[in-house]
From TrEMBL:
Residues covered by the M23ase beta-sheet core domain: 405-494
Subcellular location: Cell membrane
Principal place of residence: membrane
Regions that span the bilayer: 12-37, 43-61, 68-86, 122-140, 182-207, 214-235, 241-259, 266-283, 289-310
Family under the similarity heading: Belongs to the urea transporter family.
MF-aspect GO terms: urea transmembrane transporter activity
Keyword tags: Cell membrane, Membrane, Transmembrane, Transmembrane helix
UniProt cross-references to InterPro entries, sorted A to Z: Ammonium/urea_transptr (IPR029020), Dup_hybrid_motif (IPR011055), M23ase_b-sheet_dom (IPR016047), Urea_transporter (IPR004937)
Source organism per UniProt: Pedobacter roseus
Protein's membrane topology: Multi-pass membrane protein
Highest taxon of source: Bacteria
Name listed for the protein in its UniProt record: Urea transporter
């Protein structure tokens, strides 16, 4: 019963909060309170939300989708609109029920249709439904609907309940600049209010939810008023509803919600204002012929149109659309910045070095010998001894060279596309210019991603066209064929399957150089590189698979049980049974690292998330950076949030190092906050493990010291 109540309460509050692109519960509560300033409208809005929630839940729609409020917030607007425009009678409830059903159907269908193009529905279902109601009511003697005489259709002017009248009048007549009063009225207009007090409360909620979002509301308001001042489009001033539901919402949507906030997105938030005037004025004239209000349709059309326009770009460059929606401009920004450096497993196909042991790059990208022009992004590898020689004396035949006849490996899973294996190996110092690439293998890994290894030994190739290969499979031997005066291995990545294809700059996923782990980088000329040497203790301890169950108990008696699952997108995560916290992670053959945490920040799982943020299986020291967490109530971070699209001065740094013991090893962790290069440690931790896995954790945060015992089992 408790879970059902939590589900409906959370879903209902999100239906309110999503009006400002938020799932913040404080903002949701404030919007609910403000909607009740006009009690009839607030009540019908609440009824619309709850009825829609019950309907989509009973019909079996995905509960996670329902909880976002995306299926029900249009019913909220519809209910508020009904209560604002029409008086209560029997037919009111009849047509409200019918309209709510239509609104839900439109919400689900439009979300499914537009979702195929990664586009939002916004408030289109509400607008279409209410237009249908108005058209039908105007044509059939009102269908029994009685329009309120105190509320003009185009002004959307509502009165506050009688017990609030004096308080609302006090705020409406505050001795502050008229534009400030207009701003708050405009904010309140999103929920069909015309109240300064309502606008102040909503603004407080928006600011708590998102400093970036609030700043964009201000920018939209100021820019729209300035454009109107320059053009005189509305001599008596822009209506508060036009400002709030269109200009300010467009600014917020384009500047920081559907696009990752940056100075570029802010420029677009300003630049789109004249465009919004054009669309708003044109729609107002067109709809005026049918006595229909424009509502927020300009906002919907402009936002969807611009998003689709941006999606058509082949090269997004610096103006990035929000790939995964966190319903917070700050979180979208911080996660995007973190993802660029941390989540390269999702950005690149995982390629490994195509050889065993430590090889040296004899010619790198843009090399002076042959790596030029369209073929500049290629690497040549050789084996060298401690004297930096690639051969043993006398060095006059291919067999004298250390790399000759050594195994060549597939850099990644794929299908063999091209094979040439019949070309003779050259005498040392001579080259074959007619068969430039020599014996070669081209492997297709994904669409438009191929790797090529060349200058292989004659008749050494162990695969044929069409063979399926796995990363690390031996596919041939290093040779000296083609344009190769001495044995070496040529490696390149390309977009097409042909042997003479242009090269593509592309990183190796993980490799070692000078006892340092390099992740998704490209070796440079002169570097000696090799595959990471995996520590069995670390790999065994952190190789969490679906079905894994761990029980952790603190010295304070707290206990949590964690289980590993995969979601619909095959992403792996820990789930805490006691508090429903979730921690997503990546676990590949080289590293373990967390990507995202949802839930109780006071849980033991969150402490583990912070302590094991990134673990290198090759036991190298790790330096990483947490994404800032604006979802926690931290006023100290608000200035950074406001400036984040332009300048980051606060960093949360993570580091660890490994100490080996006779019976295992320990990972020592330090986490610190850095503000303008001034460091403050906020977490010290140690994770101990043996051959069976993790045994315990010790965590120190401020005055809190926890010892956590770890027990594991499998389903």
């Amino acid at each position: 019963m408790k879970k059902h109540l939590q589900y409906y309460l959370s879903s209902a509050l999100n239906s309110y909060g999503i009006l400002f692109f938020s799932k913040n519960k404080i903002l949701g509560v404030l919007l609910f309170i403000v909607s009740m300033f006009n009690f009839n409208a607030g009540l019908t809005g609440l009824i619309g939300v709850m009825a829609s929630l019950i309907l989509v839940t009973a019909l079996g729609f995905n509960r996670e989708d329902i909880k976002t409020g995306l299926y029900t917030f249009n019913s909220l607007l519809l209910g508020i609109g009904f209560g604002t425009f029409f008086s209560f009678n029997f037919t009111f409830w009849l047509w409200l029920s019918a309209a709510s059903l239509l609104c839900v159907v439109l919400s689900v269908n439009l979300r499914s249709f537009l979702g195929k193009y990664s586009l939002p529905t916004l408030s289109i279902p509400f607008i279409i439904t209410f237009w249908f109601v108005l058209i039908a009511a105007n044509g059939y003697q009102g269908m029994g609907l009685v329009q309120k005489s105190s509320s003009l259709l185009f002004e959307l002017n509502t009165g506050a309940p009688s017990n609030f009248t004096k308080l609302c009048d006090f705020f409406d007549n505050l001795k502050i600049p008229a534009y400030a009063l207009l701003f708050f009225r405009s904010v309140s207009a999103v929920v069909f209010q015309n109240s300064v007090l309502a606008g102040i409360l909503i603004s407080i909620g928006v600011f708590i939810h998102s400093r970036i979002g609030f700043s964009l509301l201000l920018i939209g308001f100021i820019t729209a008023c300035f454009v109107n001042y320059l053009t005189g489009t509305y001599p008596d001033g822009i209506s508060n509803y036009y400002l709030g539901a269109n200009f300010m919402m467009v600014s917020c949507a384009i500047g920081g919600f559907f696009i990752i906030p940056s100075w570029r997105s802010y420029v677009w938030a300003i630049a789109v204002m004249p465009f919004t005037f054009l669309v708003l004025n044109a729609l107002s004239r067109l709809l005026g012929f049918y006595n229909l209000p424009v509502f927020s349709m300009p906002f919907c059309l402009i936002t969807i149109g611009l998003l689709y326009f941006f999606m058509m770009r082949k090269n997004p460059q610096k103006l990035q659309l929000t790939a995964f929606q966190n319903y917070s401009p700050e979180t979208n920004l911080y996660q995007s910045l973190s993802g660029k450096s941390r989540l390269k497993d999702f950005q690149y196909f995982n390629l490994s070095l195509p050889f065993m042991g430590a090889w040296t790059v004899s010619q790198g990208y843009q090399g002076e010998i042959t790596h030029k022009g369209d073929w500049q992004h290629a690497l040549d590898f050789v084996l060298k001894d401690i004297d930096d020689k690639s051969y043993e004396l006398p060095g006059i035949k291919p067999e004298d060279y250390y790399c000759f006849n050594k195994p060549v490996l597939a850099a990644g899973d794929g299908i063999v596309q091209e094979v040439i294996s019949h070309i003779d190996d050259n005498v040392i110092g001579q080259v074959n210019l007619q068969q430039n690439w020599g014996n070669t293998i081209v492997i297709k890994h994904t669409e438009h991603l191929f790797t090529k290894v060349s200058h292989l030994k004659k008749n050494s190739i162990k695969v044929k066209t069409g063979d399926v290969v796995k990363q690390g499979d031996i596919i041939g031997l290093c040779g000296n064929s083609g344009r190769s005066p001495e044995p070496h291995l040529h490696f390149q990545v390309q977009c097409t399957p042909y042997i003479g294809s242009k090269t593509l700059a592309y990183p190796f996923a993980y490799y070692e150089n000078n006892a340092k782990l390099n992740t998704f980088q490209i070796p440079v000329e002169g570097e000696t590189v090799q595959k990471p040497e995996i520590n069995a203790y670390l790999k065994n301890a952190f190789h969490f698979q679906p079905g894994y169950i761990g029980t952790v108990t603190t010295n304070n008696g707290e206990k949590e049980t964690w289980e590993v699952f995969t979601d619909d997108f095959n992403a792996t995560y820990f789930y805490c049974r006691e508090n429903q916290a979730i921690a997503y992670f990546v676990n590949n053959s080289n590293v373990f690292y967390f990507t995202r945490f949802y839930g109780d920040r006071k849980s033991i799982l969150f402490l583990f998330y912070q302590a094991a943020y990134k673990i290198d299986y090759s036991a190298h020291a790790v330096m990483d950076q947490y994404a800032a967490d604006p979802e926690r109530f931290k006023p100290s971070l608000w200035l950074q949030d406001l400036l984040a699209p332009f300048f980051i001065f606060t960093h949360y740094l993570y580091s660890n190092h490994i100490l080996f013991k006779n019976d295992g090893l320990s990972i020592h962790i330090e986490a610190k906050k850095q503000v303008f290069n001034q460091d403050k440690i906020f977490t010290n931790a140690m994770i101990c493990l043996d051959s069976k896995g993790i045994t315990q954790m010790q965590i120190e945060q401020g005055n809190q010291k926890l010892k956590v015992k770890w027990e594991t089992s499998l389903v």
